[in-house]
Amino acid sequence: MIKIDWDLLHKSAKTAMKSAYVPYSKFPVGVAALVDDGRIITGCNVENASYGLSLCAECGLVSNLALSGGGRLIAIVCVDAQGEFLSPCGRCRQLLFEHGGNDLVHMTPEGAKDMAHLLPWAFGPDNLDK
Ligand code: THU
Description:
Blueprint: H1 6-17, E1 30-35, E2 40-44, H2 57-67, E3 73-79, H3 90-100, E4 105-108, E5 111-114, H4 115-118, H5 125-128
Parallel strand pairs: 3-4
Antiparallel strand pairs: 1-2, 1-3, 4-5
């Protein structure tokens, strides 16, 4: 069982948040995740003048996951400008489920919660096999 260093993930998410490009919302988000091979990957939100095209921090994270070698997401911390734990939006929960499944754990103000709690009865790759 891989050890989750929540402090390191929190610190990494706060660092990533500082790179956010948020001229429109002024709401920077940073995210950091532990991958099953032990590496830590990060992401930040990147907005666009065509507002609906803005990329959430989790989009950057999953792109970095693929680019840096793939693997399964084990644990994740998402933060706002104050470094407070942030709830991933619905679309991002689906993105994260694809790469972490029900066992992926998120840090919340109430402690670590798994994906089965945050996105119950999720649609995912297994459904396409049926
Ligand atoms: N945002 C994220 O990056 N991730 C989330 O899970 C929630 C929302 C971003 C999108 C937008 O750039 C800003 O937060 C305000 O909605």
